[in-house]
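Lesson 9: reading folded outputs for more than one chain in a single document. The general rule is that every protein is listed as its sequence immediately followed by its structure tokens, and records are never interleaved. Here is the first one.
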Amino acid sequence: MGKLFPRFYDIAMTPLENTRFKKIRESLVSIASGRVLEIGSGTGVNFPYYKSGVQVDAIEPNPLMMNQTEKRIKAAQVPIKTHLAKAENLPFADDSFDTVVATLVFCTIPDPVKALQEIKRVSKPGAKFLLFEHVRLDQELMGKTQDLLTPAWKKICDGCHLNRDTVSLLRNAGIPITKVNSYYGGLFLTIECGIEKE
């Protein structure tokens, strides 16, 4: 399944990306400014939405996903450099980035607490942190269903947790949340944060 998922990711996501997801991504990613770090860039689906004036370092731990980004890098309006790296061990100096972007990726990160520590480390004071994620629903029956399905879902979908509570992870990491927008009954959220340095 590890080799199949990257090949079918774009095909599986096309119906969603051609509808509301495209607008959500474009609206969120267009907020990015300065030097940008994209976490888990996958096949580069966000690359067309970066506006001129930014430069992007995009990390992706799956080489099969990263291999599919070439066309989107060439078509992008901004310089994009990809790195084979994990969010828990970012290959960048402290205080390097003005904006961090993560879309539909925090569900797959094995150690999201460590990843958030690393994001804080490489972000400049006051940096923007922009997320688009699916989350555990705040409804007892649906939340428990997500809990029940997650072990099998992780095996099929490259480690994706259906039941990850990203908002709580951010709060516990001391990352202030400035804005949350809810979509599809709260299953998907856009989250805007500011990075504070101790």
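And here is the second record, again sequence then tokens.
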Amino acid sequence: MEIQPILAALRKHRLATLLIALEIALACAVLCNACFLIANRLQAMQVRSGVDEAALATLQISGFENSQANDINARILAGLRAISGVQSASVLNSIPFGEHRGRVGIMTDAEGKHFGGVVELYMGGPGSLEALGLHVVAGRPLQADDYQPFEGVFPTSASVLMARELSDHLWPGADPLGKTFWVDKWSYRVVGIVDYLVTPYPSYAGRSAPGWSAFVPAQPGPMMAGSYLIKAAPADIGRVLRDAREMVAKVAPDAVLDQEGSQTISDLRNQFFQQDRIMAFMLVGVIVALLLVTALGIVGLASFWVQQRRKQIGIRRAIGATRGDILRYFQTENFLIVSGGIALGMVMAFALNLALMKFYELPHLPLYYLPVGAIALWALGQLAVLGPALRAAAVPPVVATRSG
């Protein structure tokens, strides 16, 4: 089919052609970036924790003085261990997808010249490492004498386990065992590596990553109290948590139970990613609405042009054009308009992505989203124009030539 007559016809309808092309360009830019955002959110929601989520819950209490910490810990732990079905009860300062009390910036040298990043230090008492379900894949496991009492915010020194993702970041290509990192003047020596341990806020942006965490063994005390890790069979964990909440009122009536923070780890994960799910659904709605508006615009314009060209269509039919020729004419015309819009839309997609990168710290838009968006819009354009094109192809030559 000759393209030149189609381009000549489009030049006679510059404004309408331009408006549809701009609509398609906007749709292309929004479609590519919205799909990218949805994919990012879905990927973030699938982050693995590295812990035995289905079997874990946390109990959070507050409202007590530091001088009461040892007594509160003893009463709560005894009460938890007395509940039927509890396999383990221990003190853990930070909770995956929940409370975080160990986010710090670390250095890889004592002089503080080499910044390692923002990491999460999980401080846990005896039994917490086993309850989390972490396994040492290199180095040695923690021993009883690694759990030392401390008085400040963190232990002044400790033998720690580090997540592999963090060790690969701090010492790429080197053996991390025996390496030391610093938090201010406090030093921590890596004695073992665990496969993975997610930070409480895995979607935290900036100089951090979801697996940048380490486990610091410590004896519970004034600065490590009120946050408890409970382990039970997955089928029992919900009932065990309910009993634990009731237990607090009996064994520690002077403490305040944090109802919102005391959840199973699975529920904490669901709550943590609730906003991501809402955003993904909203973006899907935006995409559907935008594509619907774009399709209606194409249908409206094509229908208008068919009505305007009835006489021309009839003449072409009378001189030998088949229905297939008329159908291909409108489909080719639409393909050219959509292609022009897509070309502009790709530039707009990158511009929009640059704005999102600047203001929301999003990653760069991968190139493969552009052909995916183009194919989607080409398919949409062909489907949208199909109805008007079929009506044009069905115009009888005699009716067309007699029309005003």
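What the second record shows: The longest strand covers residues 115-124.
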